[in-house]
Amino acid sequence: MSLRRLGVFLALSVSSSAGAAIAALISAGLFRSSAAVIGGGVIGGIGVVLVVQRLLLRCRLTPARRARAVRAGALAGLALATALAIATLPTFIGPLISFVLVGLGAVIADIDAADRERRVVGSPVS
Fold it and tell me: How many domains are there within the chain?
């Protein structure tokens, strides 16, 4: 894994988890229902993923031609992380494992997009 992809992984994993947790806590305090906690966490996670992915694009950690793929991979990882966290909520290991899924989804999508570029153009892409 390149250093650039490690940065994308860490930035999206940490920020999406923190954003989802903060949004879930705020919605729990405002609405006092489990559905609001889940909904707040999902909305907060999506918002943070979109903002951080835009920042990664501006900092040139995500190439512009692969930005859509990285965004889609991160959101798919967030969907899997949400499902895993909800299914394993009584335990502590499920939400901890789901922490890495957002960044992992973004990195896998970035690798796949680079591989597609390589096959189309025929030149090496980092």
Answer: 1
Residue 72 backbone zone (phi > 0: left; psi -120 to 50: alpha; other: beta): alpha
CB atoms within 10 A of CB 119: 8
pTM of the model: 0.88
Nearest to 82 by CA among 63, 58, 101, 55: 101
Q: Are 83 and 21 in contact (CB under 8 A)?
A: no
* Residue 126 belongs to some domain of the structure: no
Cα–Cα nearest to 76, from 11, 16, 116: 16
pLDDT in tens, 97-118: 888 999 999 999 999 999 998 8
- Using the structure block, give the residue that is written with the tokens 């900092």: 59
End-to-end CA distance of the chain: 10
Tell whether 23 is covered by a domain.
yes
- The range of the structural domain enclosing residue 56 comes to 3-121
Collapsing DSSP to helix, strand or coil, 90 comes out as: coil
